[in-house]
Amino acid sequence: MSTKYPTYLLDRAKIEGAHTLAVAQKHGAWEALRKILKDGIGFAQVIQLVKDSGLRGRGGAGFPTGMKWSFMPDPVKDPRPRYVAINADESEPGTCKDRVIMELDPHGFLEGALIAAYAMRAQVVYVYVRGEYRLPYKRVADAVAEARKAGLIGKNILGSDFSCEVYMHQGAGAYICGEETGLMESLEGKRGHPRPKPPFPAMFGLWGQPTTVNNVETVFNAPFIVLRGAEWFKSMGTKGSTGNLLVGVSGHVNKPGVYELPFGVSCREILEDVCGGMWKHKQLKSFFPGGSSTGVLPASLIDTPMEHDAIKNTGSMLGTAAMIVMDEDTCMVRAHEIVARFYEHESCGQCSQCREGTQWLHQIFQRIEHGHGRLEDIDMLVTLSKGMAPGKTICALSDAAAIPTLAVIKHFRGEFEEHVKLARCPFLPAGTQRPVFAGAH
Amino acid sequence: MALPARLVTEFTELLTHYPHKQAALIPALHRCQEELGGWISPQTMQDVATFLGLEPVEVYGVASFYPMFRLRPPGKHVVSVCHNISCALRGADEVLQQVCQITGAQPHGNSPDGRFTVNTVECQGACANAPMFDLDGVYHEDLTAEKVAKILGSVK
């Protein structure tokens, strides 16, 4: 991959055995927490530092992390127990970056989680890992055990008056538990039904207590900011999106992978230089810039910089920076039939717009793809999507189904019309059909 | 019936992680599924409910919400084929077809000889190494027809 940009996130992860405490410590893990505790850096200073760095959440929404941390109430006025929950429920289609951190540098991740807990004066951290991630779970769980033995987790960490426990918690395959209030419900042992906001988690989170939910990669940045400073962090990326981020690239590229890049590198550079160009020498047709919830962009927008504002200006979103690349032979209707099926499957069912809407979207995409569509179905998809979003439901899953639908029709309406006119998918040879499996859904 | 002693010991420790017992439900169901035949039987739900002070229907409500919990006995081996977008772009349909052919199972069903359960699953976070499936809790990535044949051929 391209080495022309400074890196820090995955430097240690590349070292053999970095998931063990001995190797990780030799290469700088836990130094930031030591510094905080030894130099007596106050929690308010840590929050200010993170605010100054401009760090934004890496879980999809891009909310400023320091500000989020500052929402936790003052423990003197509000002495209730308080929690940090780490969102390791990575499930957005196309996204596979937190897994890399947890598998290869679990100590760096835990150190970040502990710094978050220190800044917010939380006594307990829960790491909510998606159930399918067995190796990442094991790596982090082993790291917790090692760190606890070394006095880095538990009572009076490194002899200070800071005490914090870390508990691992396994999810069970529901995408909706990556939504922060769904995650909290799930952690409490319930169905992952998101909660209406307000009240916000900082005031009423896990078991009604002050709670902050942070993504793995977000807290993973914290130790570097503590050691190297806010100015250093801001020297990478763009004005509104500072630092490096992990970009996961999948689909029709020569070298799919998870790459560390500063915000602001163009999607073309990611595709052509970092990922070695298109697979099988095909032409680029379209790409999701940040996971399947972010609307597709046509090839003509490949020069868009990978950063929050620029991608927003195209009408899409940076999301989790999970770029899904599609070549000229990809049927956009079929691609969105899959995406719509996913949201139907994952809707928790609380809000009717989402429960019904995701089903209808899937059914309509399906009938257009399989040659039974009507021209008015295309406008029906638009009308439905506008009834589902924005902000019409408890959480954003409904939006996540509506946004890609509106985007694909905006950029590829002609392809939908062609399906209807031919009464079949133009990307399949005439007379053939896609395999349909009994029982598959 | 009651939970085996080893699970009771384990779950007693698990309860110390949370201020409320119910929080242990999902981790406990995972362990039960692993230890008690690969699924969550009605009896297991009753036993877990008793242990955590819940109504059986509360346990059922949770167990049936989460796709990873199996409420029917699976085959000896479980193959979960990702068919979401990134895998689909790299040939998930063909992988699924091949898996069904080799095992004799249809998606969300067991093979006639009871050796395999085949599932289609949504994104497993292996997108940069698509296509993939999970066999008995282990990811197999960057699949090709040869790899699929070899992996499934070596399953006992």
Question: In terms of topology, how is this protein built?
Answer:
The complex is a heterodimer of chains A (441) and B (156).
Chain A: H1 21-26, H2 31-38, H3 43-53, H4 65-70, E1 83-88, H5 98-104, H6 106-120, E2 124-129, H7 134-149, E3 165-170, H8 180-187, E4 211-215, H9 216-228, H10 230-234, E5 244-251, E6 257-262, H11 267-274, E7 284-288, E8 297-298, H12 308-313, E9 322-327, H13 332-346, H14 352-369, H15 375-388, H16 397-422
Parallel strand pairs in A: 1-2, 1-4, 2-3, 5-9
Antiparallel strand pairs in A: 5-6, 7-8, 7-9
Chain B: H1 5-15, H2 25-35, H3 42-52, H4 56-63, E1 77-82, H5 85-89, H6 92-103, E2 109-110, E3 116-121, E4 133-135, E5 138-140, H7 145-153
Parallel strand pairs in B: 1-3
Antiparallel strand pairs in B: 1-4, 2-3, 4-5
Helix pairs in contact in B: 2-3, 3-4, 6-7
Give a brief rundown of this model.
The complex is a heterodimer of chains A (441) and B (156). With 441 residues, chain A is α/β, with parallel strands linked by helices. Chain A is built from 16 helices and nine strands.
Sheet with the most strands, sense and barrel status of chain B: 5 strands, mixed
**Strand runs of chain A, count:** 9
Q: What structural category characterises the helix and strand content of chain B? A: alpha+beta
What is the second-level CATH architecture of the largest domain in chain B? 3-Layer(aba) Sandwich
